[in-house]
Design brief:
single chain, Rossmann fold, 7-stranded parallel sheet, 7 strands, 49% helix, oxidoreductase, oxidoreductase activity, Putative oxidoreductase, Sc_DH/Rdtase_CS
Length: 254
């Protein structure tokens, strides 16, 4: 896929992976629109990269989604919708079957899964009208093997992974020109996991892997440990589950 000259919308683009993606897409020669809930982060991104277009929008909010679609349409539309925004509720103090646990799961599903479907449905006809277009959905290494301490986050990403595969197949049957990519990051060094000592890759590494996959039309893009976990899980599922859920997490669950 040729990315130069493409108009790309990145949700959750005010920091972390989304902002790094915006930077690298701009370097290629793409036109980039980023969204986010935090206007201060969007303003800082605009200062750092003046050619960016920024729109304040919450990926899990229905009214924001419709407003976003209208604003993007007024700007001339997009060729690529990159569903990058994602949330994870910290497992600390969220006991299974508690009210807080349910609210956390509901929030994760609204942003990580339902919000993605909403935006895809809104933008699909626009994308179909383009000569070469794409949807990028960000799932996770935890859509391959779930984490015991991030059960609902894992579930939201697993749901998105199945939906992504189904969407791709559905569009292929219809003969659509819209390509559907799935990005499976490992643990990435962002604010979301700043307090974790686990092995992480940089946003720079992840986005480079994403761009390489897009340019090769590699519809399932696994980067870093996601490649290893995928292979291990096929042949050694019990071992792989232990790698994702080491014994030390027992203290976290208590």
């Amino acid at each position: 896929m040729n990315l130069k000259g493409k108009a790309i919308l990145i949700t959750g683009g005010g920091s972390g992976i989304g902002l790094e993606a915006a930077k690298q897409f701009l370097q290629i020669g793409a036109k980039v629109i980023i969204t986010g809930r935090n206007q201060d982060k969007l303003a800082a991104a605009k200062i750092a990269y003046p050619t960016l277009t920024t729109i304040q929008s919450d990926a899990g909010n229905e009214a924001d989604a419709y407003t976003l679609f209208e604003k993007v349409s007024e700007l001339g539309g997009i060729d690529i919708l990159y569903n990058n925004a994602g949330v994870g509720v910290p497992p600390k103090n969220l006991g299974i079957a508690s009210d807080d646990h349910f609210k956390g799961a509901e929030y994760e599903l609204q942003v990580n899964y339902l919000g993605v479907i909403r935006l895809n449905n809104l933008f699909i006809e626009m994308l179909k009208s383009r000569k070469e277009s794409a949807i990028i959905n960000t799932t996770s290494i935890l859509s391959i093997v779930p984490s015991l301490v991030e059960a609902t986050y894992s579930a939201s990403k697993s749901a998105l992974a199945f939906y992504t595969k189904s969407l791709r197949g559905h569009l292929e049957i219809l003969g659509s020109n819209v390509k559907v990519f799935e990005l499976l990051p490992p643990l990435v060094d962002t604010d979301m996991v700043a307090d974790r000592a686990d092995k992480k890759i940089s946003p720079d590494q992840l986005v480079k892997g994403l761009i390489k996959g897009l340019e090769k039309n590699q519809y399932t893009i696994r980067v870093g440990d996601s490649k290893l976990i995928y292979v291990f899980n096929r042949f050694f599922p019990k071992l792989t589950f232990g790698l994702i859920n080491p014994r030390k997490i027992n203290s976290t669950l208590r």
